[in-house]
Amino acid sequence: MDMRLPTETPALLLGLIGEGIGQSLSPALYEEEAAQHGILCLYQRIDLDELRLTPAALPELLTAAERFGFKGLNITHPCKQAIIPHLHALSDEARAIGAVNTVVLHEGRRIGHNTDHYGFAQNIRQHMGDGPIGRVVQLGAGGAGAAVADAILRLGAGHLALFDQAPARAQALAQALQARFPHASIAAGGDLAQAMRAADGLVNATPVGMHKHPGTPLDPDLLEPRHWFAEIIYFPLETELLRIARQKGCRTVDGIGMVVHQAARAFELYTDGIPADAHRMTARVMRILERRAATAGT
Fold first, then answer.
1. What enzyme category does the UniProt record give (predicted)?
2. Contact assessment for residue 62 and residue 85, using Cβ atoms and an 8 Å cutoff
């Protein structure tokens, strides 16, 4: 008689830290993808708004996550840069970009990674192929913006114009990028209307357009049918600016691909190399969004 106990199901405890993340699709993405690999995953939203906390609470939250046995944490607005001083190590990508969206907790160490740049690049390639993306205007120079700008330049943009509500932040990012991409032309601030007239494409890397930050990050009249437009927000799936861009006939890229591909890469980090199925994750996201839209319409 075989007296061996049955093998325990592998378990994975993960979380997301950020503001206004009640509509995040991350729990479903990670839990259902893990189940496909025979892993029991529990994914918790750690919403600073609901907890009435600010990024100043990050040290306490990290300590609590370690004590509860979390394997990793996703990091979103406004913590992608604020988290860095509280980590023990950074991946090469996270160090170069200066922002972290994925933290692996392992044997008492906190290791920061950035999968946003990969997710954005994959999304652009899927929608626009390998053709030139030309001259780009990017709105937003924060944590997500730093990763997106890195991806844009790696995709071959010849010129990148950065704009941010904090001009000094845009200037600092432009200088850091220029040092890493000396053959590109990178500028910060200036005349946004003039930059749009010279641009081939526009990227919104600000939180403007989210449910918590409604509106558009620039005057929609500056967007012309010849422009392509990429959005990194995915809830709502169609921001006001994305809707306007489509109505004008612009070539558009929504935020779904970025969130799926960055999550797929993070899943591999959390599971020590188990590959995630991005196509399966995309289908899952679309089903959830369709259900939400149907519920909202009833």
1. oxidoreductase
2. no
